[in-house]
Fold this sequence. Notes:
- It is a single chain.
- The chain is built from 12 helices and 15 strands.
- Mean pLDDT is 79; it is low at 159-163 and 169-176.
- The strands form 3 sheets. It has an 8-stranded mixed sheet, sandwiched between helices. Strands 9-10-15-14 form a 4-stranded antiparallel sheet.
- It folds into 2 domains: 1-313, P-loop containing nucleotide triphosphate hydrolases (Rossmann fold); 317-387, Immunoglobulin-like, CATH 2.60.40.790.
- Helix 10 links the parallel strand 6 (206-212) and strand 7 (236-244).
- By secondary structure, it is α/β, with parallel strands linked by helices.
- The two termini are 45 Å apart.
Amino acid sequence: MRIVLFTGKGGVGKTTAAAGAAVLAGRRGLKTLVMSTDAAHSLGDAFGVAVGSEPTEVGAGVWVQQVDAQRRFEASWQQVQDYLRSVLDAVGVDPIAAEEITVVPGAEEVLALLEVREQAASGRWDLVVVDCAPTAETLRLLALPEALGWYMDKIFPTERRVVRALSPLLSRAAGVPMPEGRVFDAVERLHRDLGEVHDLLVGPQSSVRLVLTPEQVVVAEARRAFTTLSLFGYTVDGVVANRVFPAGGEDPWRDRWVEAQSAVLGDVDASFAPLPVWRSPYLPAEPVGADAVADLATEVYGDDDPFAPVEAGAGPLTVERRGDDVDLVLRLPFAVTGEVALARHGGDLVVTVGSYRRLLALPASLARHDVSRAKVADGRLRVRFSRGERT
């Protein structure tokens, strides 16, 4: 079973790319589900059909689903929200305002990921295609499970014990209700569920496909997305360059666009190599409906197999021994030295790239080693650990 997530800057055509790939897969004999974590839910528009919260067949071998975020919310977050509302009520916050405050931003996208996990585990599908939110939201979403995991491992157990022991005293002193066991249980359940989602999406059956248009600003964002996805351990399997003007004709205006796009596409080919860069032509009309998006995908992928298993590699994080020293190597495509910061926090190595931060749990073998040097080169961060040496 394969999972392919499509993401890109808003407006580049990722929904059409996801829909086309799904229909193409269905026509090649793969039982395929295409679903969305984007709150905009544009998949129904791409297929030109009404889509419900259960998978709806839209063509031979392909189903589409619009996740029922409200149902997911009630199942996964309702108990926590009820507690937060009781706290706000105790301090005099208006009930309507409390309802709005306790809805976590991005909750729909987060809970949609749980549906991805359930559908992948159902055994019904050969391929699950996910139309993700625009790049920035997707990166925050995919970073969440690991960030929450650090909090749950390091802070949550102590916090739960303290509240359990001091709950009566804290309730009287603070004048607000303390969380009951069921609230902690709900948080732990959500953490466990998101942990399973994370393991699924960084596993060998899953990959991310970047969709872009041949514009410098869009390509720059795609590069940053590639770096951040690599930071968090996700595999990028290719790039779809959308809305490419065809060469030929006698229109000077279009010829200038072709020339400008060709220069950008040359840069894309060189910078994302050895990943495949599939090109999607600029069409005279927006493709709507299963046949139209499938025709587009057929032209994009040609004879390639865009659903082939992800090639097994060394993974985004490797450990290399060099005598008494150990190098920890993390793939960070396009990263440069000035953008990367390192810190040691107990048994964790904190890696910051731009505005994104990841805490890497170090192998036990490095517990008595200190960072002696670090270098970013050739798309890799190499951190050397030596005994008894500090930077």
